[in-house]
Amino acid sequence: MAIKKTHDVVATVGTYKDRDGNEKKRYVNCGSAFLDDSGRMSIKLETIPVSPEWSGWVSLYVAEKRDAPAPVAADRYRGAPDGPDGEDIPF
User: Fold this and answer.
1) Residues ≥6 apart with Cβ < 8 Å to 1
2) Is 70 within the bounds of a domain?
């Protein structure tokens, strides 16, 4: 059974002011929503906001198509000879 990512799961976790002083919403990507061959949608959460400004609601936004998947945070230094401080990374 194949599943396909269809949506990003996003939460609004507060506001901030841009350089011009305009108030903007602050968002965090919490995970992804998938659709299987049977038409069932599943949601995989990677994080849950802890901000006291979070309302408890998440929104689904149609996922943008990308040529290659973004690297996972832990993969940023994997395979690199040195870590950011010049030392070997222990993982």
Assistant:
1) 36, 37, 38
2) no
Q: What is the pLDDT of residues 17-54, one digit of tens each?
A: 999 999 999 999 999 999 999 999 999 999 999 988 89
Of residues 45, 46, 65, 55, the one with CA closest to residue 25:
55
Which of 51, 43, 55, 47 lies closest to 8 in space, CA to CA?
43
Alpha carbons 78 and 91: distance in angstroms, whole number: 8
What total number of domains does the chain contain?
Answer: 1
Q: Where are the alpha helices (DSSP H) in the chain?
A: none
Query: CA 15 to CA 89: how far, in whole Å?
Result: 36
